[in-house]
Amino acid sequence: MNWQLLPQFAVTGLLAGGPIALMALGLVLIFKSSYIFNFAQGQLLLMGALITWWLSVEQGLPLALSIVLALLLSALLGLAIERLALRPMTGQPLLSIILMTLGLSQVLQGLALLLFGGAQRNFPQIFSAANPYRITTPFTHNGRPIIIILKQNLVWSFIIAILGVIVIGAFFQFTRTGLAMRGTSEDHELAQSLGLRIHRIFGLSWAMAAMVATTGGVLLATSSGLDLSLSVVVLAAFPAVLLGGLESIPGTIVGGLIIGLSQGVVAAAKAQSVRNAAEIMPYLVLLIVLLIRPEGLFGQKRIERI
Predict the structure, then answer these.
(1) Secondary structure element (H or E) that encloses residue 257, with its range
(2) Distance between CA atoms of residues 256 and 164, nearest Å
(3) Which domains does the chain have, with CATH numbers?
């Protein structure tokens, strides 16, 4: 373990957990309303980031306007997916619907390659790359205090991501539409018998998930660049959402922070004997937690009586 770099990597990992929590939120949004695990979330993230880049760089629009338009277009894409691909699957076995989302992921990945190409792109900078934040810790090394250096895009991406999760959580907790979405996830037939328009709720959940994915894609692209491999980043959100609980919005924050912290600590350890140890660690943490608490840290225990 490189103890001198441990505070730096730990804090960096925690901040990286913010966008992971935001990506996990997109998965929870779909699951809370339709009880479907969406395997196409990574491709929605990729498409949102590519649309933002195209509007800003290729069309010359201001970045702020490009982001707003990309959010609207991604919402329309989410609505179209629900209407054209998933609504005809109503009443089909759950496994068939999940396989449909897997097929959607490949279709969206192919569309991204066809429309935008596979080249690496420099995404417009939202936050200044200069003047990083410096934190002086109480720890010392060789008689000198250890200083943590944090890039502005990392800090502000974390703040925006956590605020996004909190706003969506408040939406589900305190609005009639959010309560209707929660009720629909419990029992589709009962919700429909009470007058809830479940297809409209499904469409809204997919639109919101696509907008959340676009926000996460923009935040990630500002720091890591933009290419087709960006969709793979969402794999870190799968352990986060399962760790926090598939139905828990606060769990996405806790799960994202735990996954980010574990990756940072492993990176500080410099585990040369294990290749890509930082990528393996989230799944190891997930296995340990699920062995102890299979429903996740904040998931609901469901007891079915026969």
Answers:
(1) helix 249-269
(2) 13
(3) 6-292 (1.10.3470)
